[in-house]
Structure formats: C-alpha cells, structure tokens
Prior knowledge:
Structural class: alpha+beta
Helix content: 55-70%
Distance between the termini: 81 Å
Radius of gyration: 36 Å
Amino acid sequence: MKRFLTRDRLFYLAVLAVSVLFLIVGNRIAVSGNAYFQSGSRADTYYRSEVIAVTEPERVEAAYDGWTDVHYEQDVTLRIDEGAVRGEVVTVHQQFAEPNDGYKVFFYEVGDRVFTGFNFDSEMEPEWFIADHLREGPMLALVIAFFALIIAFGRFKGFNTVVSLVFTCAAVFFIMIPAIIKGENIYLVTFITATYTIVMTLAIVAGVHPKSVAAAVGCICGVGFSGLLTLAMQDVMYISGLIDEDSSFVMYINADAVIDLRGVIFAAIVIGALGATMDVAMSIASSLDELLYHRPDLSDFELMRSGLNIGRDIIGTMANTLVLAYVGSSLHTILLLLAYNNDLGSIINRENIAVELLQSVAGSIGILLAVPSTAAVTVLCRRWFVSHAAKEKALAAVCAGGTAVSAPEIPEELAEEPAEESAPEPPAEEAPAEKSIEELWRDYRDQAGKN
C-alpha cells in the first residue's frame, strides 16, 4: 500500500478531490436563489420524442402583396418519451423552407428523434411544435472518439488531459455561466474560474514539477495582462456591450439583476485566451526543463535566450490560432458586412467588429507576454529545476539497475565513476604446520643440550 500511495499519487488524488468539491460547492452557490435554474421553471415544456408517423411533404405557394412565398408542409406524429406526458401521442403541423442550393432541408422520417415543446394558445390549449432534431447521440459519439484518440496517443497523460478538460468544461458551464446569470460579479467569477482552470489543469497534467509552477505563473501573467488590456481599451474604443440584437436579450435574462454586457465581453476574452496561453506557457516550461535536464551547466543568460528563441517560433502560429478562431466564429457577420458595404472604414468602426479585433489582439498579447514570463520564472527557479532533474536521473539509474535487490539510491554521476583500486594487501604468513610429539621432544632435547 505504501508503494502505491507515493507522494505524486497522493497529490494527484488530492487535486481530484479538491476539484470535485470545488465544482459541487461552486454549483450550489451559483444556482441557489437563482430562479432561472430552479426545477419546473422552464425545461418542463420541452421533451425528447420519437417520430412514429409522417405524411409526404406538400409544396405550398402563397401570394402576399405581389410576391409569392413557397414552402413545404408536413404532418408529423410524435410519441413523447419523457416527462409528465410520457407516452402521449401528438400531431404537429410542421413547415419547411423550400429546398435551395445554399442549404439542405431535412424532412422528418419515421424513427427520427426530435426535441418537442408546446405553447398555450388563447384558450389555454397546448400547441405542440418541433424545436429541432436531437443531435446529442452523434455529438456524444464524436466526443468519445476524441477522448479515445487522446488516451490512445497520450496514454496516462492523455487520460489526465481528458480529466482536466472535463473539469474545465464543468467549471465554465456549472459555475461560471450560472453565476453570471444569477447576477454575480462577472470579473470576480471570471478570475476564480480562470485561476482554478490553470492550477487544476497543470497540477493534473504535469503533477508536482517545477515546470508546472513556471507554466502557471507565466499563464497567469499573460491572461492577467489580456484582462487588464481589455478593461483599459473598452472606454478608449467606446465599447458599450450592445454588439448585436442578442445582447439586449442577454442583459435581461435575470429579471432581478441586469447583466453587465461589458463584463461578458471581458469574460469572453479571458476564457478565449486561457487555453492558448496555457499551451504556450507549458511548451516553454517543458522545453527549458528538458534543456536543464541535459545541460544543467547552462548560464541564466543562455537559458533565458533559449526560452525566448523557442517562444518566437511558437508565437507565430499561436497568434494565428486566436485570430482565425475569432474570424471563423463571426464569418457570417463579416460576409454580410463586406457584401453590403463598399466602405471598409464603416465596417472596421462597427462595434461588433471592434470587439472581435479586441478579442484577437488582447489574447495574442497575452500569449506574447506568457513567453518571457515563463522563461523568467524558470531562470529564477533554475536550482529547483536542476535538483528535480538530478532526482529523476538518480531514479532512472536505480530503475535501470533493477529493483530486485534493495539498495540505497545512488546518483548517476557517482554510479558511473569507477571504483578506486585499493593497494594490494601483503600475503598472509602461512601458519606453521602442527608438529608431532616426537618432533616436539627433539626440539626440547636439542634446546636443553645447547643450554
């Protein structure tokens, strides 16, 4: 039992326990007193259902003030599979847009799984409708395949990556978002979530190692500067928070507390830059740790220069990652603006474009500052790095020699030195052979005669 519960394993189990406790307590605090997340408030009118009968889609043309609307209609019979109305059979009259080359229309078929809801009409009778197809099955299969590939490639470290990813998503969806909806301070909630994510991820993935500490400090410096830059530029760039029509709906989600839209932008920038910054910080710390493992005699200047040189190669592609991610997420908006505006200046000066630019630049600057921060922490803690590397070498030497014989751990440097040759000992004098009684008598007689 003692051999299994080593220091690293105890630390790993402690991190898992603290993470689970943080998620449970944080979720209870976030949802307590929040009517939006109380059972029976909104989700009871939506149910998973199965299509059991359909009619052939019918093409319908309707004229309105000189123009013709063309759409398709289909009657869909559903069986409700959950909730208080489980087992009920309802019929929905569904409308579809006319099929077009620009998109695909999915008419319902028997066996389809859908998400069904209802509204009450003026006579308080339920009117059923189909919200959308159920996509949770294929999505779950895709996520499981992704996790399986990570574990197959990274083995135990891949498993740790999956665990940290699950905890990160849980912190965002079970604590951060409910707390924002509840009306808590967005800046404080974002800081707590980001700090927890950094510490938890690096502790699980890297364990008790100086490189995890250096990466954590570098990541906090980079993400912290991104957040401060966002706060400073919001007034300079006249960011109001109302970047689109959805913003007004977000602001009044909670009837008891108005949500700060500028705080939502701050949270989006910090969380968006967190993953990439952590990746860069860990890459720098791991690279410098490997250098000190093989070259512990490197000077502080050489170590710092190596970290900056490695960081220059990483920054080029990582900055593109953030910029392209934000461009891809708002590609529909960019297409519309470029198609209907000939003046490039009018596009750049729109608030939604300014927010996207702020997200890209602030996040990239955070990545940039994470490189020298991580390298500087590694230089300051080089003795810790070298000491840890020496212990790893000693452990590797013992493991290479086998563990069948219980022996004290000997550092590799000492184990490789040849043993000093000791001076040859003089040959021991041969003990005289035992004499017989006759010989002893002759010796005594001869000695007496001499006297």
